Amino acid sequence: MDYLNRLLSRSFTAVAAVLMVAISFADVAADEGDDARSHLRAAQRADASRQWQQAEAACDAALKLDQNLASAYYYRGRARFGLAKFKESVADFDAYVKLAPDVASRQWERGISCYYARQFAEGAKQFELYQTYHDNDVENSVWRYLCMARMKDGGVEKARAAILPIRNDRRVGMMKVYDLYRGKATAEEVLAAAAPSKDGPTGPLFYARLYLGLYYEAQGDSELAKKYLRLAAREHRGDADRGEVNHYMYEVAVRHDQLND
147 and 181 in contact (C-beta within 8 Å)? Predict the structure, then answer.
């Protein structure tokens, strides 16, 4: 699907872009000083370029001046995920939701942090909640599957049986990813659906590789998991830099690849 259709699709990618613009609305009622806001803007700029240490430091500075600046917790949660501080990331997203409860259903980043913090049940609940906000996002359904597969009383069969329904995620290749997790498609079919045309965008291939890697990890096939996650992390930085893939999801691939090393 071309760039326009990706913008029209309300996926993790699209929702993240909207939140980047609208996130400050959570702080309208607060009485922040200019200095705190200045640090928050610096954190937002660092986030956009995946400079996670700078983003964390800027959020720290903002919160030192104003502990009720909700968005600073949001951006620090993202930064701490990028720094592999997964439990701290969850805590920051929790603080953000406490200050801005209306955003609770949108916090897919929190769900991913829960997964890497090994808080699988909490992650599954977050993705279930997100489904009430946006019910046509393959990525949300997949992450809930991944959390359920890792729960003590879970497993891939239970995760597949309870997979969240998705009618039509319009992004290239994503419904084939969904079919894979449902047990209705093969890896070859997923890759074929995402294969770029001549001189076409390679962003869809990133998502195919990312979710193949995560799928094989849930299946217990560490070699194939490492193969696809490595490809997602090491061959698609240009896609992230060009905005063809969500830069935060690219960071997920990078962090996972580093954990595998």
Answer: no
